[in-house]
């Protein structure tokens, strides 16, 4: 990668693993820590290279993915994601997701998590998680979790959980 005035801060082009400032990179991979504005175009083809953390404003044309953790505001035409933690305000034209997802998450088709999904979650078709879902959750067809669903939950056809549903739910 190339950075002005240095490879650590300023304006960066390419895969600079540690950077603060405005960074434009086609595919984020082997990231250590990125702080600032990060503009990417695609996700890596392997989970092994989705490392490190991003803090700031992420813009995906079409995806904002490629790191283990993503904190801040991320917007993408297709999807916003992180392999571990996705936290903040996340808007994906198709989906938002990660292993653990917190904050305001809007996905045209789905907002989901492999483990826990907490916050204000809206999925055009579904909002769900492998373990727990909590907060204000709206799914055009369904809201669901393998564990517990808590909070205000609205599913077009169903609200369900593998263990328990608590709070106010409607379908």
Helix content: under 10%
Class inferred from helices and paired strands? mainly beta
The dominant shape is: elongated
Name the beta content range.
over 45%
CA-CA gap between termini: 50 Å
The helix/strand series, from N terminus to C terminus, equals EEEEEEEEEEEEEEEEE
Largest sheet, in brief, is:
17 strands, mixed
Radius of gyration, whole Å: 17 Å
Overview of the molecule:
The mean pLDDT is 97. The radius of gyration is 17 Å and the shape is elongated. The chain is an all-beta fold and 171 residues long. The chain has a 17-stranded mixed beta sheet that branches. It is 0% helix and 70% strand. It has strands spanning 2-5, 9-13, 18-27, 33-42, 53-60, 63-64, 69-76, 79-81, 85-92, 95-107, 110-123, 126-129, 132-139, 142-145, 148-155, 158-161, 164-170. β1 and β2 form a beta hairpin.
In short:
With 171 residues, the protein is mostly beta strands. Helix content is 0%, strand content 70%.
Quick tags:
171 residues; 70% strand; mainly beta; elongated; 0% helix; single chain
Give the arrangement of secondary structure elements.
Blueprint: E1 2-5, E2 9-13, E3 18-27, E4 33-42, E5 53-60, E6 63-64, E7 69-76, E8 79-81, E9 85-92, E10 95-107, E11 110-123, E12 126-129, E13 132-139, E14 142-145, E15 148-155, E16 158-161, E17 164-170
Parallel strand pairs: 2-3, 3-4, 4-5, 5-7, 6-8, 7-9, 8-10, 9-10, 10-11, 11-12, 11-13, 12-14, 13-15, 14-16, 15-17
Antiparallel strand pairs: 1-2
């Amino acid at each position: 990668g190339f950075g002005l005035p240095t490879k650590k801060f300023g304006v960066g082009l390419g895969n600079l693993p540690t950077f603060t400032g405005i960074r434009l990179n086609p595919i984020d991979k082997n990231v250590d820590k990125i702080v600032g504005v990060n503009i990417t175009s695609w996700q890596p083809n392997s989970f092994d290279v989705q490392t490190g953390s991003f803090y700031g404003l992420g813009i995906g044309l079409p995806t904002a993915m490629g790191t283990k953790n993503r904190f801040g505001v991320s917007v993408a035409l297709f999807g916003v994601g992180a392999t571990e933690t996705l936290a903040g305000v996340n808007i994906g034209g198709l989906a938002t997701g990660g292993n653990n997802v917190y904050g305001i998450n809007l996905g045209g088709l789905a907002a989901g998590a492999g483990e826990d999904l907490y916050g204000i979650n809206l999925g055009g078709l579904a909002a769900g998680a492998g373990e727990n879902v909590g907060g204000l959750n709206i799914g055009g067809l369904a809201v669901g979790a393998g564990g517990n669903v808590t909070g205000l939950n609205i599913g077009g056809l169903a609200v369900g959980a593998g263990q328990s549903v608590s709070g106010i739910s409607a379908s």
